[in-house]
Design brief:
By secondary structure, this protein is mainly α. The chain has ten helices and no strands. The chain folds into two domains: about 140 residues, no CATH class; about 120 residues. It comes from Lactobacillus acetotolerans.
Length: about 325
Amino acid sequence: MKKPYYFIRPYEDGPMGKPPVQDFGQILNETYMKPFNWKGRTTRKSFWLSFLTNLILTIIASALVTYAVNDPILNAGIKWIDYVVVAIILIWTFLASLGQTVRRLHDVNYSGYWYWSNLIPVGAWFIFYLTLQPSKQSPVKWGTYLFLDDDQKEGNLYYQQKYNANADVDDTPVPPIGQVLKEHFFEPFKWSARSTRTSFWIGTAVNYVIYFGIMLIFYVGLFIAFLGHLRYELSGYSNTALIIILGIIGVIILAVAIWLALAQIGHTVRRLHDANLSGGWYWLILIPYVGAVLLNLLLFHPSVKEPVKWGSYLFDTKK
């Protein structure tokens, strides 16, 4: 079995080797002159250097706007020119960043449509995770690197080899939704097992929906109880029954919240096992500010193809 890796997967030894290297000029040309060329791929180095360049340009544009707004000497016409220049810079850097992100996703063998996962918080962290990973050491179906000239194409396996769709077939078992929910909510203490990435994130999403649902019920109940308390106070009647009912509801909600927490812990441990990592990595969550982020980076790992020492899946993988 391959050794487990933690946050960034290392390159593998093989005939393909590492991806071709491009210089800074080629990176700038690819980033700003080909923002709409999405049928290609880009290296990790290219993506992060272009990210830093975009950041610097954005800071300069922001400083220009601040200067134009606060300088009383500039007339309105000059200020409008500054605004137009800044708008062009910001729009072009956004388009350049979009193109680079799509090509970076292609480079790790993910569709560019995954870019839209940025619209949800955990999805943005997933994109960040993917941009940290090394290039897939084989051809991908979205084309090759944009900077390869005729000399670089000569003898370059990343350019010469053809994409093989059969090599991309993922044999990771896919559990039905019923099994995902059963595993997540009714088997929280089965830690000597593993769970797929799909199963974990579906279970986690349902878990949070239920959690926010019961918290909404709790706060609505508190508000109604407060109104009822005022009514009893004004009428002079005892509100003992209201307090008892509210207490029962509170106990039920607390029990459900505890069960949701246990279910999430169990599924997290199994997901770590599936990536060939010890469940002890769960305790990263105790580190202030960055612990949850680091844990998520581990939970994004794909399933290892080999058996792991913590057992197998909780569903029949032969179906």
